[in-house]
Amino acid sequence: MNNNNLYNYILGIADNTLILGQRLGELCGHGPALETDIALTNIALDLFGQTRNYFQYAALLVGDGKAEDDVAYMRTERNYFNVLLVEQPNTHFGYVMGRQFLFDVYHLLLLEGLQNSSDITLAAIADKGIKEVTYHKRFSGDWMKRLGDGTAESRQKMQEAIDDLWRYTDELFQLTKADKAMIYEGIGVDVSNFKEAYYQEVSEILNEATITVPENKYFTSGGKKGIHTEHMGYILADLQYMQRTYPNMKW
Amino acid sequence: MKKDWPLWEVFVRSKNGLEHRHFGSLHATDAVMALENARDVYTRRNEGVSIWVVESKYITASNPSENGELFEPAKSKVYRHPTFYKLPDELKHM
Asked: What is the DSSP code (8-state) at residue B84?
């Protein structure tokens, strides 16, 4: 493969949508209400659709007859580059929405940048995803307000989730080697540039939701380098089960 | 406290120029959630271009036990259908 940086850059974006989609998929049939269940599954399907587009492109770069499934399923944990935020468990509905919201705000900023990529494939995928992600952000943002500004219990749970998940937000803006190389070539988005805009937007919605913006300055990271939390192995066990049990199987 | 979320009726316009039609109902705590739920439950296969939601309790319905007095008198009045006009042959698609 002659463009390893581009390949890794694509994985850095697509592994986030893959793993978050997988987390939401775990809730299929288990949502708190039928309507919310379908809503979360719709979001998961949007994310998988985007993931497939990225992986099809990544598979082309690898060549050698590889397909999207090889990219999605046939890697070891250390070769997945999603951020730690998206692999955090569905502890309770507040965590599901908190994780979604903290990712959605970032995701939209990322796609808005990627729309202007000099790589026309990535720009097209971003362009298509923007409408979907705009809705995701609206949905999760509304839930932040509904739960934060809801009952005493819902606010306490929402606050707990945000306090817990906050430590994973800084990683969103860290640049990997592949990021830097792709930014240099005009393909990648310099996510560190919109860190301030991100925290401002998140804080505005949290304020509206009467959730206290955490002052915690302790952040943790590693996912972008393939160093994951203890949850990742379980996600991959689920995700990769079929391909590992029946190699090359197709639906 | 009632545990169930209130019921809402969903009306979807399938295409511009057509009317909103009743698609079904769903549960939601507020109007914003009802719209979002309607979008996710009833338009996920590209069924609509516009959605109305109204809380079911605001719909006043006719009483089925009064169907006799409400609807049966109309049955014997075929002359209310515009089928007695002779249309000129030149007029098509009527």
From this structure: S
Domains of chain A, with CATH numbers?
4-245 (1.20.1260.10)
Q: Cβ A146–B33 below 8 Å, yes or no?
A: yes
Tell me if A125 sits within 8 A of A172, measured CB to CB.
no
Residue B6, SS3 per DSSP = coil
Structure tokens at A102: 């903290």
pLDDT digits (tens, 9 = 90+) for A129-145: 999 999 999 999 999 99
Q: What single string gives the DSSP state of each residue in A100-143?
A: HHHHHHHHHHHHHHHTT-SSHHHHHHHHHHHHHHHHHHHHHHHH
- Cβ-defined contact of A142 to B37 (cutoff 8 Å): no
* Chain centroid to CA B88: 35
Q: State pTM to two decimals.
A: 0.90
A35/B44 CB distance under 8 A = no
- Other beta carbons within 10 angstroms of residue A120's beta carbon come to 8
CA distances from A164 to A9, A143, B60, B69, B81 (A): 28, 17, 47, 64, 68
Residues of chain A contacting B39 with CB distance shorter than 8 Å? 135
Residues of chain A that touch chain B, judged by Cβ-Cβ distance less than 8 Å = 33-36, 38-39, 42, 135, 138-139, 142, 146
Can you identify the CATH homologous superfamily of domain B7-80?
Phenylacetic acid degradation B (3.10.20.520)
A56-67 residue pLDDT tens: 999 999 998 899
| Nearest Cβ partner for A39 among B5, B32, B36 | B36
Search chain B and give the residue with CA nearest A36.
B37
C-beta atoms of B37 and A39 within 8 A: yes
Residues of chain B with pLDDT under 50: 1
Q: Which residue has the tokens 């998929």?
A: A25
CB A188 within 8 A of CB A9: yes
Give me the residue label for tokens 């995928």.
Answer: A125
